[in-house]
Amino acid sequence: MEMSRILPIKSAFNFRDLGGYKTSDGRRVKWRKLLRSSDFAKLSDEDKLFLEGLQLRYVIDLRSQPEVELLKDDVPQNVEVHNLYIDAGNLVPKFKKLMEDSELSENERFEEGMKLMKEMYRRLASDYSELFRKFFKIMQSDDSAKLFHCTAGKDRTGVSAALLLSALGVDRKTIYEDYLITNKALAGKYDDLMVYGKIASLFANVHEEFLDTFFNTIEEKFCSVEKYLTDELLVNLTTLKNLYLEDELG
Prior knowledge:
Layout: E1 16-17, E2 27-29, E3 34-37, H1 45-53, E4 56-61, H2 65-70, E5 80-83, H3 92-99, H4 106-126, H5 129-139, E6 145-149, H6 156-168, H7 172-180, H8 182-185, H9 201-204, H10 208-222, H11 225-232, H12 237-244, E7 245-247
Parallel strand pairs: 3-6, 4-5, 4-6
Antiparallel strand pairs: 1-3, 2-7
Helix pairs in contact: 3-4, 4-10, 6-7, 10-11
């Protein structure tokens, strides 16, 4: 059966599969084991059936506590939910203030928004080791299907996917390509904000320089992404690879 990277979920956005990516040891990531998405508070019956068919065991919710309370996920039965509460990705209040600042030009608002985004990615790299440690502990618990997400499925989810793929031995170019799929898979979620102009695009799109900021901060602080994973996040790379990789022929 041919597998699709973007999952056929119609009542939520940015549902994707990390399966199929080739790794440095000649293997590939298993399909339908590592999934990422945006929030999903109002799933259609058809989409619920699809998710139930994936036999998810864990959902890891990376949203802040207020975000979780505002829109609770429509989680399939018998799924264990872990809330990691990363508040760095909830920039709505700051962006709202910027978007309504009539003293700034459209380009100035956008540039200020870009600065906010990069600062958030620096914080994700430097301030959340404990939560990412918990993330990988869940990932290493067994080889069951797991879904992780935030509100848009692009920033907190994006760096989590980047770390996970790095730990599995996927090359950096492929990691960036996966990260940028968001710009297609999130289309439509924030259309109502586009009246605010260019800055509103930052709700719906990611930029390579954001992920650059994340990786550069890790490498400046921890020397390398691998050292960050193994020494700071306590990831057992061998265990993780044995759980989620398979030979090319499957």
